[in-house]
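name: query_chain
kind: protein
chains: 1
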Amino acid sequence: MGKFIFVLIFLAFVVEQISLIIKLDKIQYSCKPSVRSAEVSEMFEINSLLSNHGLIFIPNLEITEKLPENISINNSDKLSILKNKDSVELTTAIFIRRRELIRRKMKVSINKRGVYAFKGCTIYSSDFLGFYKPNREIEQNKNIIIYPKLLENKKLLIALSNFYGDFLVNRMLIRDPILVLGYHDYTGLEPLKSISWNQTAKRNSPIVKEYDYTQEQSVTVVLDITYKNDFGKSHENLETCFAMTRTVCQFLEQKKVAYNLITNACIINRDKNISNINSSGQGNKNFINILELLGSCTYFPVCTIEIFFDYLNNSTMKNSGSNNSIIYISCSQDDKTLIHLNYLKNKRNINVYPLYANNYCEEDTIHVS
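structure:
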């Protein structure tokens, strides 16, 4: 019996000495999302990679991954998850062999707009007897951008329809086109000066010209996040502003209207300047860039309201007149902003369409299944 106990003690001593020489510096880890950007609550994958480049296996490796806040993991019932204020910690115990590579994929979603970082992990090991528990931080910074929601709101859709009606009327009134895209049969609605007499003579029926009217009009979407004395609901109203801006831009894309977006919001991972981005209205990469910009907006402006409107006034200088429209989006109306908007409308003769977040309440929202 004494020999047996001695053997057990000896084996425990040997295993303990082996466990003490295990080093965590040979462990490599990475975690990144499968997509660069996504919609709110859209499922995507996160791909984790854990590798042991050492020559010794690690029987009791513990890894705590630092996932973004507001993340939901699919089928997470059996996982060890700790939700903190600014992160979600996922802890897993792993047996990893020498020179082994472990891959894991999880389906997740994020339920709020913003830029979210996968910050790495903390790995732990322990000696055989449990006296020591060394750890190592592995840092990384892989981001994903979550777009703002599409705001399906009755009042907003009516306001956009009214804007587009005015836009079409102004487009028809402008009759000095340069670019002829093609021809079509006369319907009786077109003005007589649109008739192409050469084509009419060739086909022996009235034929009218098709013009590229979008080249003659300018639409500017302005997102102003300046604080408007509504601190109690400021973040809520700003999120509504981001959703409204996304809805307006998507509406213009669907109507194939070229536009540019100007905002004074501070953008994560960009210079602290006023942002101005163009879209051809064709639903291409430019629109994705706009969605990513809106997803990356913070709640802080980069300049004062005076500097912002000076920039806006200068940027629209080339397109003064009734062929220039501004869709102005902000949390609420205030006297200072109204002075600047009236200047653009009355002095510059620009069509101004203000949209304020506090006018679009939850009960007006259309719930789309």
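note: The domain at 154-177+212-364 is CATH 3.40.50 (Rossmann fold).
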